[in-house]
């Protein structure tokens, strides 16, 4: 007698073979079926891929990726934190990952997935099972089935211990190599830790150095500048902002998309770190004798400082020349000026080391020189991994040339502000000292260095120089 529930050969063409489960994607086993990868994690992986493979900048590619995946609100915030955190903290995450591998060589795509998984396990409040399972799904659907088991095993090992224990295991002993320990624990290249410690000065404590590195790893708040004569600070406050403590034009947003604020969309205000605003104000507010009609921003791209200066110049009846060497960045400067009154500013696309204007043309000059960007590591997560000491050496030569041109461009009695978004001494005080020592026709009259852990700004440096009267 035939057993109940058993199919006959007529009704079952697969008799004698295991029955395959149905699957919309054609998988051949339950283990092969994967849930669709959630969009925030896929978006974060796209950002990591673009940064690694195309040398893209995370803060520039992220909005494009968010739009591509249709993310906003909490999903956009999750994708942003995943991508930025994984890039920022890879100096810690990679040694942790390697400690769990029999062979440390990994496909770059697999390492990207693991970095995202480790960030969720060690630095976010994502449940372990969710961080692991979504990472396995992600690698399965983007790389292939092969690495799924490895990703699962590695992340399970990592989830078994808290981050402090992993730091103890993979970082040098702080009692014998403090900078080496901080380089791993706070995820900065060792040479950057050394340079920042030197910039803080010999009186800075070890705790302050650690606080600076921690500040580099904290996501920055969005700060806006209300361009005077075009927007009021109260307008930005009404959009959910809070006045900053130093810049009279600064407003810090608690959240949301700045582009949704009418003043920003119309160019009457702009996203601009308070430190950047203070650099522009150092140039516009420096004491000056005699005429005050012609201003120059020698390295104006992408246009934040130039737009603020143009708005101030318009109120004073002055004229600004905004020069930028790269044409595509000059176009960004022009876009930033769209709300400034006509005739207030001229945007030039020219080489600042070979200026077309007559020496002594300007009353005020800002040279925001190209630099290593080590003062904005919290804002540009990938910069710390791309810059090298050799880059600084090359930049210093260019910085000195540009400062020379700036002093040549200002009239006797006029002022020059030299600025960098870097606190590294070779790019800041040493550049100023080298140029002044060989010229003998200008003097330093003021200087400031801002810090993210002290001031809540990027680590902007600015020195105000005055060209000696004839």
Automatic annotation (TrEMBL):
Pfam families from the UniProt entry: Methyltr_RsmB-F (PF01189), NusB (PF01029)
Domain of life: Bacteria
SUPFAM superfamilies: NusB-like, S-adenosyl-L-methionine-dependent methyltransferases
Region of interest: Disordered: 1-37
UniProt xrefs under CDD domains: AdoMet_MTases (cd02440)
Family the entry assigns: Belongs to the class I-like SAM-binding methyltransferase superfamily. RsmB/NOP family.
Listed name of the protein: rRNA cytosine-C5-methyltransferase
Organism the protein comes from: Nocardioides baculatus
């Amino acid at each position: 007698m035939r057993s109940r529930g058993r199919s006959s050969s007529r009704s079952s063409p697969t008799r004698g073979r295991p029955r395959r489960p149905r699957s919309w994607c054609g998988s051949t086993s339950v283990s092969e079926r994967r849930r669709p990868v959630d969009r925030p994690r896929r978006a974060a992986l796209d950002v990591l891929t673009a940064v690694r493979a195309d040398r893209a900048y995370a803060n520039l590619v992220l909005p494009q990726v968010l739009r591509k995946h249709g993310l906003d609100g909490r999903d956009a915030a999750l994708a942003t934190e995943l991508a930025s955190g994984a890039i920022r903290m890879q100096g810690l995450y990679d040694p942790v990952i390697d400690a769990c591998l029999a062979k440390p060589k990994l496909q770059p795509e697999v390492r990207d997935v693991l970095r995202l998984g480790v960030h969720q396990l060690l630095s976010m409040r994502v449940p372990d099972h969710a961080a692991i399972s979504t990472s396995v799904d992600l690698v399965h659907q983007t790389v292939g089935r092969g690495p799924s088991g490895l990703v699962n095993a590695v992340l399970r090992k990592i989830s078994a211990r808290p981050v402090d224990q992993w730091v103890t295991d993979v970082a040098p002993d702080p009692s014998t190599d403090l900078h080496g320990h901080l380089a791993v624990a706070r995820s900065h290249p060792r040479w950057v830790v050394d340079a920042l410690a030197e910039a803080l000065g010999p009186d800075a404590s070890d705790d302050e150095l650690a606080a600076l590195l921690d500040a580099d790893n904290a996501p920055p708040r969005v700060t806006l500048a209300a361009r005077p004569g075009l927007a009021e600070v109260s307008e930005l406050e009404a959009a959910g902002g809070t006045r900053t403590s130093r810049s009279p034009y600064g407003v810090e947003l608690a959240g949301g998309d700045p582009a949704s604020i009418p003043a920003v969309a119309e160019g009457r205000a702009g996203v601009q770190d308070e430190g950047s605003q203070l650099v522009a104000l150092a140039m516009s507010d420096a004491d000056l004798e005699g005429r005050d009609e012609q201003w120059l921003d020698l390295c104006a791209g992408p246009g934040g400082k130039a737009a603020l200066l143009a708005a101030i110049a318009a109120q004073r009846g002055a004229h600004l020349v905004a020069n930028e060497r790269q044409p595509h960045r000059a176009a960004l400067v022009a876009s930033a000026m769209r709300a400034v009154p006509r005739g207030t500013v001229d945007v030039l696309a020219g080489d600042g080391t070979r200026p077309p204007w007559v020496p002594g043309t300007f009353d005020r000059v800002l040279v925001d020189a190209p630099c290593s960007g080590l003062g904005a590591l919290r804002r540009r997560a990938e910069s710390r991994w791309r810059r090298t000491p050799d880059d600084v050496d090359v930049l210093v030569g260019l910085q000195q040339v540009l400062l020379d041109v700036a002093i040549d461009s200002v009239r006797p009695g006029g002022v020059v502000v030299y600025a960098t978004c870097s606190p590294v001494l070779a790019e800041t005080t040493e550049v100023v000292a080298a140029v002044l020592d060989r010229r003998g026709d200008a003097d330093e009259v003021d200087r400031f260095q801002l810090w993210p852990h002290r001031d809540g700004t990027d680590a902007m440096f600015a020195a105000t120089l005055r060209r000696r009267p004839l």
